[in-house]
Amino acid sequence: MTKFSSTILASFVFLEAMSIYQSQPTILAQSHEFSSVAFLNGTWEGSYICGEELTNLRLVIEAESATNIEAIFSFYEDNINESLPDGVFRMEGALEVFDPPSIPNILQLRATNWVNQPSGYETVDLIGDVYPSQEKITGNVIGPNCTQFELIKQEF
């Protein structure tokens, strides 16, 4: 083997090793990103206030990554407000993840389309603080005459 071909072979091996090394951080970052949002997956229940009415809320979240989160927002009557119709719409959004974990993450969900729209009702958006260790999300309902919401993760 000539000195020239040895240099080419060594360069090729080095470049191949670098491409493998450089691909590893991407895989690790994707794995870390999923683990940082995986706790969101599942059913969250609580309530919110719109138009001075306390309303039950069920939010079923499916998070594939911090920038690809889908949810089903379901509202329904409670013991105080039994005349409230049921409604369901889809949402999508993202999670802003902070480090250290003592700072709450921020979840933003935007309504996309109705599944079951009661007459006269509009969709709302959500922006909230996520507390993974407490399995709680609290925040603001973005919509006409709406205020706050609170959700707790449900274990089935």
The CATH topology of the largest domain: Lipocalin
Flag low-confidence runs.
4-32
Radius of gyration: 23 Å
> Biggest sheet: strands, sense, closure?
8 strands, antiparallel, barrel
Name the strands of the widest sheet in spatial order: 1-2-3-4-5-6-7-8
CATH architecture of the largest domain: Beta Barrel
Strand content: over 45%
Q: Overall 3D geometry?
A: globular
Give average pLDDT, whole number.
81
- Assembly level: single chain
- Note the gap between the termini: 67 Å
Which structural class best describes the helix and strand composition? alpha+beta
Number of domains: 2
Q: How many helices?
A: 1
What does this protein structure show overall?
The chain is globular. The model is unreliable at 4-32 (pLDDT under 50). Strands 1-2-3-4-5-6-7-8 form an eight-stranded antiparallel barrel. It has two domains: 3-38; 40-153, Lipocalin, CATH 2.40.128. The protein is built from one helix and eight strands, in the order H-E-E-E-E-E-E-E-E. It is 22% helix and 48% strand. A hairpin with a 2-residue loop joins strand 2 and strand 3 (68-76). It has 156 residues and is of the alpha+beta class.
Q: Secondary structure elements and their pairing?
A:
Elements: H1 3-37, E1 42-50, E2 53-65, E3 68-76, E4 87-96, E5 105-116, E6 125-131, E7 136-142, E8 146-153
Antiparallel strand pairs: 1-2, 1-8, 2-3, 3-4, 4-5, 5-6, 6-7, 7-8
